[in-house]
Amino acid sequence: MGFRYTFQGILDLKESERNQAERELSQSIGQLQLEESSLKELLDNRLQIIAQMNQASSKSIPIGQMVQMQQYVDHLDNRIKLKNQDVRVAQRRVSQDQEQLTHCMVDEKVWIKAREKALQLYTSTQLKKEQNLLDEMAASRFLRMSTG
Question: Which residues contact 66 (CB under 8 A, 6 or more apart)?
């Protein structure tokens, strides 16, 4: 009969928890990348508008158009402020998910080590039984040869 680990179900559960934590971390990293990309787009857009305003100031453009551009920059500033908050939330989520994954990996490693120790104990017990059986066979063969 082969080795059967009593707590294999727990080990399987720990592996499943680790896999889930890896998926959640991957998703949160993806969300962070989306938020950062969106923020970069807003910042680039703001730089373009400011560059246009600088060019327009050297030309004679209607003041209404200049006011409109400034209002758009103000709008972008508000969106950038909100997007920065979204990025910080996403960064915190990534950190939390990294901590959760680390915890799951440590927990799983503890159970893997326990399984390895149980396997070593089983293997050494089996080897000892086999050795005892071989010793017994050798002793009985010796007794048969010496008496007969």
Answer: 53, 56, 57
User: pTM for the complete prediction?
Assistant: 0.77
As a whole number of angstroms, the distance between CA 127 and CA 3 comes to 13
Residue 148 has pLDDT above 70, yes or no: no
Assess whether pLDDT exceeds 90 at residue 81: yes
Count of other CB atoms within 10 angstroms of residue 93: 17
Please report the domains of the chain, with CATH numbers, ordered by start residue: 19-147 (1.10.287)
**Structure token pair of residue 83:** 């997007």
Asked if residues 46 and 76 have their Cβ atoms less than 8 Å apart, the reply is yes
Alpha carbon distances (Å) from 130 to 3, 118, 134, 137, 139: 15, 18, 6, 10, 14
Question: What's the Rg (C-alpha) of the chain?
Answer: 35
pLDDT digits (tens, 9 = 90+) for 92-101: 999 999 999 9
The 3-state DSSP composition of the chain as helix, strand, coil percent (nearest 5) reads: 90, 0, 10
Instruction: With CA atoms as reference, report the closest residue to 21 among 79, 84, 91, 93.
Output: 93
CA-closest candidate to residue 13, choices 119, 99, 111, 113: 111
Q: How many residues does the chain have?
A: 148
